[in-house]
Write a structure and sequence with these properties.
homodimer, about 200 residues, alpha/beta, Dna Topoisomerase Vi A Subunit, Chain: A, domain 2, 2 domains, two-stranded antiparallel ribbon, globular
């Protein structure tokens, strides 16, 4: 016997989050209905307010509460460095590092022609416009070293070749705390080739 | 730089779910603001509707959309068997097993005097009332074999001793698919003592 259709709908809604399986969705749903109602009602309100206040920055595509976003309008940030990321969450990660004071450009997706993400979908024209507007010295492609990330890095460095900018990517290798034994052959052979003076 | 205060509030709200750490909360929040808004708005609405429609059954304490709940009012269910569970989520798990056709009683919490959960907080008076109303032949204490669960099983079997009902608990032992090697000494020695003809 299914206890409640309405709860089942809530479970299915929560199950649509990436990485939240059916069991976790059930646990979250039961938590919501078991607690003091004010928690759930506040959460619902916070979700509504947050998503309604967010928009894409028309300059860098970052999700933000203002357009242009606070980073694009910040005169203290350096125009010389432009960091290209997959999505806005990556910007928060890099900001938390507290090391980078340049500007950003959000692709929104990595190149993956098989899934329908070609040069246009990853906003490469917008990136070229950004470069013409900001005139950076260096474009840092802070993309993950997955097959799609590598394809995107390859494609972007090709189209940026004659734009008079230095194009760099993040270092690849064995992560700190990682194990040689548990590294993939690809990671290991890359780390071997890219070995540097100790 | 913190990208958004409103997003930070959403992350903190999601972080209050049990088992959802800060990193997962961040991932969920970014997912909510990155997707088509309709998903997040529907989710907020579903949360609100669901929690507002739920109440506790005045007979068995199960969270339900009606009072008394559909199980208490179902004439097909057997009065002879009363299953005692910690919370309503456990009822759904037992119902999914599709094997039990008796009635339920929800304690709401396990006995844990150190955390302020004494006999009154675990609704033992309500359980005795249920037993007097339903007149079951057997009371199944379907509680987990944790220290709190064991204390509760011990306490409830004491107070039910002279009520003319058979009091049982779920079998304990090594789970199917489990390993002797990875079983705790407690589980192993319990399974050893409770060994049964193969």
């Amino acid at each position: 016997m299914l206890i409640s259709l309405s709860l089942e709908r809530l479970i299915q809604a929560l199950n649509r989050f990436p990485g939240i399986g059916r069991k976790t969705a059930q646990r979250l749903a039961w938590f919501l209905v078991s607690q003091d109602k004010s928690f759930a009602l506040e959460l619902a309100e916070t979700i509504r307010n947050t998503v309604e206040s967010f928009t894409s920055c028309s300059l860098c595509n970052m999700l933000s509460e203002s357009d242009p976003c606070p980073i694009c309008t910040d005169r203290e940030r350096l125009d010389a460095l432009l960091c290209v990321v997959e999505n806005t969450a990556d910007i928060q990660i890099i900001e938390n590092m507290n090391d980078f004071k340049g500007r950003y450009f959000v692709l929104g997706h990595l190149l993956s022609p098989i899934d329908g993400y070609g040069p246009e979908q990853i906003r490469s024209a917008g990136l070229l416009e950004s470069i013409e507007r900001v005139h950076p010295v260096e474009v840092i492609l802070a993309l993950k070293p997955s097959p799609e990330g590598e394809a995107t890095i390859h494609y972007l460095s090709e189209i940026l070749q004659d734009k008079g900018v230095r194009v760099t990517r993040l270092s690849t290798g064995i992560p700190f705390g990682g194990d040689l034994e548990y590294s993939s052959m690809l990671t290991l052979s890359n780390a071997w080739k890219r070995r540097y003076p100790a």
